[in-house]
Every structure is written in C-alpha cells, then in structure tokens.
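2024-03-11 09:14:02 INFO receiving multi-entity request
2024-03-11 09:14:02 INFO entity count = two
2024-03-11 09:14:03 INFO echoing inputs for audit
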Amino acid sequence: MPLEKLAAAFFLQMAIILTACRVAGLVGRRLGQPQVVCEMIAGVCLGPSLLGWLAPGLQAQLFPPDSLRVLYVGAQLGVGLYMFLVGAEFRVDLFRGRLRGAASVSIAGMLAPFLLGALLTPWLMKIPGLFSPRATQWEATLFLGAAIAITAFPMLARIIHERGLSGTPLGTLALAAGAIDDAAAWCVLAVVLASFGKGAHLAYQAIGGGVAYALFLLLVGRRLLVPLGQAVERAGRLTQTHLAILLTLFALGAWAMDAVGIHAVFGGFLLGASLPRGLLTRELQRLVEPFAVVFLLPMFFTFSGLRTRLDTVDSLQMFLVALVVLAASVLGKGVACWAAARLNGEDSATSLAVGTLMNARGLMELIILNIGLQNGFIESGLFSVMVVMAIVTTLMASPVFEWVYGRRARLEGRLGSAGSTD
Amino acid sequence: MPLEKLAAAFFLQMAIILTACRVAGLVGRRLGQPQVVCEMIAGVCLGPSLLGWLAPGLQAQLFPPDSLRVLYVGAQLGVGLYMFLVGAEFRVDLFRGRLRGAASVSIAGMLAPFLLGALLTPWLMKIPGLFSPRATQWEATLFLGAAIAITAFPMLARIIHERGLSGTPLGTLALAAGAIDDAAAWCVLAVVLASFGKGAHLAYQAIGGGVAYALFLLLVGRRLLVPLGQAVERAGRLTQTHLAILLTLFALGAWAMDAVGIHAVFGGFLLGASLPRGLLTRELQRLVEPFAVVFLLPMFFTFSGLRTRLDTVDSLQMFLVALVVLAASVLGKGVACWAAARLNGEDSATSLAVGTLMNARGLMELIILNIGLQNGFIESGLFSVMVVMAIVTTLMASPVFEWVYGRRARLEGRLGSAGSTD
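2024-03-11 09:21:47 INFO inference complete, emitting structure
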C-alpha cells in the first residue's frame, strides 16, 4: 500500500472508530453505562464479530492488513499513555486510612481468583484453542488468576470521585483495595510474561529488567524527578519543555519494558507512579488525557475488537467455558470482596457496593488479555470468552451499584448524582 | 518485523526524536531562535545528512524501513492537526484594519515569487534531479512560485502576539499580508497537485473535490457548526464528546482531501477556518495543541529530515542552484514585501521588519516540499536545496528582525521582550 493511501486509510478508520465509540457512548449513557464499556463494545462491533460478519467486504476494505500495523502502534501508544496517567493518579496515601479493611478485601480479591484459577486450569488446558500448548499449568493458573483479580482501577477512582464518595468508608475501602489488587495482578502478569515460552536467559532478562526498572525508579528516579516537579511549580504551569521531558521519559520507559520482554504499559505505569505529586501531575493529566482518551484509546478498543472472535464460542463446550469463566470471575472477585468486607464489619449495603465495584474490570482486563494473546500465551477462544467476561462484569457494575447502594444513599443525601463520566 | 518489535522501535524512535528536538531547541533559544527552526534542523540531523553519514549502521537500526510507515502516518496526523489548529486561529477580521497596505504587501509577496518562478524554471528544469520529467513548465512555475511565496504564518502570528505587536501597524500589516499570501499559495499548490501527472478525469476529481469541500464548508458547514460552538459556550468547556466530534470531523476532512488527491492538510485547515470562534476554538487549542506540537509534529520534522539528502548538493552546479534558489526566495519575498510596504508609506524600520517576517518560511515550507516530493512532482535534489532555503530564511528572521526593528522599538518601549516561544 503506497504511503499516501496508508494515511488516507488511517484518517477514514479514525473517523469511523471515533463515530462508533461516541454513538455507543450516547446509547450507553442513557442506560446509565460509563463511556469505557461502550467503547469496549464498539470495538467488538467493528471487528469480525459484527461488522465482519454482516459485511466482510466492507470490513476488509476499512481495515486493510497494512493499516493494522499503524493501528497497533497507535493502540500501544494509547494504552501506554493511559497507564502513565493512571500511574500519575495512583495514590499510596489511600492505604493508610483504613488499612485493615483494605487489606482484608484486597487479600480476598487476590486469593479467591488464584484459587479458582488453580481449580479451573486443569480443565481449561485440556480444551483446544484456549491456552497455548506451551503454557505450563503453573503459568496458566497465574495468568487466569491475575485476569480474574484485575479491577478497573481508573474507572473505580473516577466513579468514586464523581459521586463524591472520596472521603467515605466505601470510597476509601474500594480505592485502596482496588489499587493493591491491581498492582499485585500486574506483578503476577509480569512474572508470567517474563517466564513464558522463553529460555532461562530471556526469562532472567525480563525479570531482571523489570525489577531493575522498578527499583531504579523507586530508589533513584523519584528523587531525580523532584526538581522537575519544583520547576513546574515555579513556572506555575507545565511548559512545552516540561511536557517534552515527561513524554521522552515515558517513551524511554515504554521502550525499555518492551525491549526486555515485559510490556510498554509497565514502563508507563511505573514512571507515572514515580512522578512528584502536585501541579506537575495535575497539568499532565489536563494536557495529555483529552487527546489520549478521546483519540488514541479508541484505537486500542478497535484493535482489541478486531481480535475478538465471538464465533469461536460456537460449541456447547465453548459456551460452557464462557459461562464458567464468567461465574468464576464474579465469584472470585465480586462475591469474595463482598464477603471480606462483611466479615470485616462493614454494613450490608457498603459491602455489596464494594463487591460490585471491585468486580468491574473494564479496560484493564482488555490490556491484560491483549498482552496474553500478543505473546501467544492464550489463544483466540479464551481471549474472546474473557473479552465477553470483561464487558459483562463492567456492564453489571453501574446498575447493580445503583440498586444495592445508590438509591438508598441518595435518599439519605450521602451520594452525588449519577452523572455521566464526561 | 513482528508487531511487538514495531512498537518497541516506535517508542525508542520517539525518545530519540523528542530528545533531539529539545536539545536543538535549548541550543537555539540561547541564540535567539524559535523552537520550530531548531526542530527542522534536528530532523535533518537525524536523517542521512548527518546521523546517516556519521553512523549509517546506527541510523538504519533506529529507523528500520518498516517503522517508517508508522512514522509517516504519525507525521501526517501531526501536520494535519497542526493545520487544523492554524485554521482555527485564522482571523479574517484582520484584513479590515489596513486593507490597502496589506493588499500591496501581499500582492508583491505573490507576484514577485511567481515572476521569479517563471524566470528560473526554464533553467532549473534542464538540470536532472530537481523537477519530475513529467512536470510541465507551467506546473513547475506555479509550484516554485508557491514555495517561494509561502510564509510561516503560524510562527508570524506567534511572534507578533508574543512581542505585543498585535495592535501595531507592523503586526496588523504582517499578519494580514501573511494570511492572504499563505491562503493564495495553498490554493495554487492545490491546483498543481490536482493537475500534475493525472489524467483529465483525476484532475477534475481533485479540483472538483477540493472546490466542493471548500464551498460546502463555507456555505453549509459553517452554519452547521454554530450549534456546536453554542453547546461549548453553554457547557462552559469543551467536553470529551465535543472534542470527539471535532476530531471525527477533522479525520473525515483529512481523509476526503487525501482521497480526492489533494492533501490531508487542506482538509484540516479549511475545517479549522470554518469553526465558530470563541470558547470552542480556544479550548480546542488548549487541549490539542500541547500533544500535537510536542509529540506529533517532531515526527513530521524527522520524516522530512529522513528525506533530506544534503549530499545531493555535491557539484558546483547544485551549489549554484542552492544559492540561486536562496537568493530568489529572499528577493521574491523579503525584498519584495519590504519594497511594497515602503512604497505604501510605511517607515523604514516597519518596512524592513515586515519584509523580514514575511521572508521566514518555517514549517509551512516543509509541508509544501514534502507534498511535492511525495507526489513525485519534485525530486530529492530540489527538495534538499529548498529545505536548506527554508531553514536559512527562518534562521535569518529572528536576528534580522531584532537588528532592524527590535532594539530600537524596545528602547522606545514599544515592544515586549524577545521571550521564547515556549
């Protein structure tokens, strides 16, 4: 494909992707759903599961193979920047307030998923088209556990912030537990990625590289970044030079983690988490988030949707797999976190709300799944089944939250209105 | 190249490109140069003219052929968005104030370049490696004329705004004349692109498509966009939905102009110029410009630099071509505009300053040259010679302006400090 055709194909794709995401968002908002889950669904609809099934010729014309490489890089840039921003919002001080409660909920939200992972993988690994034949039982358990344990942490943070729950027991508990679980799940995923399908040499390189990067940021990087934060405070704003420095460091971190064999998102997230808090992180959010979320992230949803083949769920067995994975996910995260909160003395409504919020997986799940598929660790069948699980558990969150907590709390004047995420 | 390697190559490239652009900017600022010309030079340095000449192996490793396609699309997105923002800043009301003066200067700044183009092309077309053998004398004249006539309009606007010259005779005159000349040069370029190397059928499609797009925006689109502007005013900010609508329209316009055979930048510029002025355009600028200018535009400078081969200027003849093109450019734009302003009764310092500002070509020249090369209209030799011309005339602007106008005006308290563009 000549270069100018490639650019034309890209612009047309973007017009269609952005339109699909916004139309889905408009419909979803009427049903009380957040934008992110609507974009997940829009992505699946643009892929072989709907558009490619209804109009394969049109779909192939819109997404010629050559253009997918550009879409892939755009998608990586989008999730990389997004995780960079998530890292910049990540607040360790949340843990302090309600440490005991958060610890119980987060431990329950880790133990149960890995337990269920261990129970299910012996069965799942026998079914072709789910895990790579080269995956070990141990790796499959860790991957499935991490995929069940992940929480839509950024979405959680936004819901809690928007509804004015930031200071409440529910808000603090859910945020802290979600943060701990997500951090743990990403660590486990990094270990799986580092070990899977590599010789000992490459596995050491990946684990060593990841640990070295994290330690460097924690011990040295954080301090080196302090002057940058001070320069931003002095200037009273984030200048183009500051932004360029931050984006250069982001690109370096993303490259380093890609190069050692983990994934660009780790580079972005850890760097974001190391940034000095204050004007720098607020301005970074303000300047980068709009374009990253509105323009770049939809590329990721689409690329992920192009890989989702709902037609792989075409046998009774695969249907059973889908149901079992969904049930295990709700049980291992939603129910486990509810039980832990209840045992920890929270009232029934708060516990149910915590369970519901922790059960939503959103974009984070898609990132994990795409990394797994990209590395050949899981195959198209399990990928598609788990995309459905991610969509269903995210779709559940808003109405169930409203039902178990929102209406009553609003009547008592304890809750902001269920405004849109926009 | 497998996908994950492609993403890793992209992140590494970006880290190096952003670093090169910022280091060049830091050095340049000390010498009183604006960021844009530093990035033009940084791009050339990353290409075969410096890095590829010093360390061809390293250069080839940093920019593997596969990754160039991604860089190209990113570059198109960058200039497309940039021209979209330039269009959104474009103010027709500038013309009213000093219509007569602006008309003389802008007519001089158009006539002289096309006259010089007509004089030079018979000679230039005989030299191999400059124009495509398929280009007619008429097309070559129009292209060379447009390339000499173009002004760094966005840079001009920024310099004038930053130095507090917006209300002065100099500011109004230069801005209005620059805007008229740029608009005219782009129209001429569109005609050249539409006619060059195409059958009558494709030429009609390009001209018809371009005219239809411009007329549609002028007659219908502007009105259709009014409610969007009102919605932004009501909301008091540009929401994600508003931003998504704007970026979708941008992508559609860029695609349409690419598809009919003109170029994506026209789609972006004309759409930007049609947007309702007010909170919408201010917020669009605020939300999109930082990322577009800091992250995406450097891809364009690099892609352009990768195409610039200063080693084509390796004969006495090519050296002569370079000198003549440079002299014709300064004569056709700087001297012609100075003379027009002087004849129109402006004082000597103001006239010299107008000539100097109009003579800087900056990014706009690079866009025109890349379009010409991409379409096979000009060849590597002329491209490289004219990149040098663009850099030299832009480099000249700041010191000459300071010399002929700045020092005196500052002594009289009529001028802001020569602050950096950042």
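2024-03-11 09:21:48 INFO post-check: Residues 69-411 of chain B form a domain with the Na+/H+ antiporter like fold fold (CATH 1.20.1530.20).
2024-03-11 09:21:48 INFO post-check: The CA atoms of residues 290 and 322 of chain B lie 35 Å apart.
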